[in-house]
Amino acid sequence: MDKTENKCALIDNGDGTISDVKHGLMWMKNDTWIELGSLITWHDGLKYSKKLNQERFAGYGNWRFPNASEAKTLFERETSNIDVQGSEIHIDPIFPSGCGFSTWTSETRGAKAAMGFDYRSDYEFWLAKENDGFPSGLRLVRKIGEKSEDSDIERFVNNGDGTVTDIVEGLMWAASDSYLDLDKWLSWDEAKNWLKRINKDRFAKHSDWRMPSRKEVQMLYDPGNPVTDKYGDTVFLVEGFPPGCGQTSWTKTLNKTDRTVVMRFHFYNGDYKWHKQGLRSHGVRPVRNIKE
């Protein structure tokens, strides 16, 4: 296997992938412009990623769109490469020349627009997802070390009682979040009070519903399965959860140095950030441990 490492800790794995050790990411060496010979719409990108996951490209079934921050990690102003038009782009030459100058990302705005990232000038821009006249390229990515489940194993099972079971982690989720139930945003304390209420009412015959940790709720993020949230924006959830939800979920993950801020997970891009507990967020996704 040919493994060539550059100064930015990019490694050619010799199987059509490039590993970014610094950021813990594995990229497809070729983008869609090289592979398909054309730019593609955002929706075509979803079909392309689904196809490669079904084929388990390089042995993995969890290739996806990069989010905006991941796409930006490939931009290195001091490096030089050449795109398909012969123009300079700032992507390390460990990636082949002749690629597209931009990539779609998983960031969306409303039901019709998505963000692209331009490697000519470190530039983010918005495009219509179905725009055939001015589409973009796409370079798929996955996290190094992230589990890639076999496609024929049904991990998330809808129980038909308003709950979804994750059979791998032994967790039961409420299929609907608080935003679907209440049609309003909640602060962290209000989210805790709502959880107390559904426990008192014994939702789905259980009284041990709680806030998820950041790692738990992140497992529900699936960039290959877009659904529509309350406002018509795109969020990414594993199959089995209904549309119309909120874009974010509170978690129980408190900051170790500032106990007034809590982690909030974003289903529209897979990111998570610290927020003040008093801030009103879209909602919370209840979860419970399945006891043997």
Q: In DSSP terms, counting alpha (H) and pi (I) runs of 4 or more, how many helices?
A: 6
In percent, how helical is the residue content? Answer: 10-25%
- Overall form: elongated
CA gyration radius, whole angstroms: 20 Å
Q: How many β-strand stretches?
A: 18
Strand content: 25-35%
> Any idea how many domains?
2
Strand order of the biggest β-sheet: 1-2-3-9
Largest sheet: 4 strands, antiparallel
User: What's the N-to-C terminus distance?
Assistant: 45 Å
Structural class by SSE content = alpha+beta
Strand/helix succession:
EEEHHHEEEEEEEEEHHHEEEEEE
Low-confidence stretches: 1-7
Would you write up a description of this structure?
16% of the residues lie in helices and 28% in strands. Strand 11 and strand 12 form a beta hairpin. It is of the alpha+beta class and 292 residues long. It has two domains: 10-143; 156-289. The radius of gyration is 20 Å and the shape is elongated.
Name its key features.
alpha+beta; 4-stranded antiparallel beta sheet; 6 helices; 292 residues
In short, what is this structure?
This protein has 292 residues and is α+β, with helices and mostly antiparallel strands. It has helices spanning 32-36, 42-55, 68-72, 178-182, 188-200, 214-218, and strands at 10-12, 17-20, 25-28, 81-82, 88-89, 102-109, 113-118, 123-128, 141-143, 156-158, 163-166, 171-174, 221-228, 234-237, 248-254, 261-266, 272-276, 287-289.
